[in-house]
User: Fold this.
Amino acid sequence: MIIIEKNEGTKIPYSANNTKVTFNDDLTLNLASREQDWPVHIDICYDADRALVIGAAAGRAYVAEIDIPARQYTEEEVDAEMQRTPIPLDMDTVTLTLWSIE
Assistant:
């Protein structure tokens, strides 16, 4: 995973396991299930009660942003037809941007 620290200060604790990212041992996202044929951007925020929420509309302060690149495929000719097979998400291509939580 590509990690970017947006500003100075303490960042939210997180862990990554396979294609799942967990923030503060509270909110877990399976990024493979959110992958699409186009780039996907996910905002993680604190709400007014400092609970983690997905989406800036529900949030009051940014905690992190996740950018998942468009799904990749392999193409193979099968019985004179091209068959596309999705390649599993490569977490090395995902960008996690962390914001200060102070």
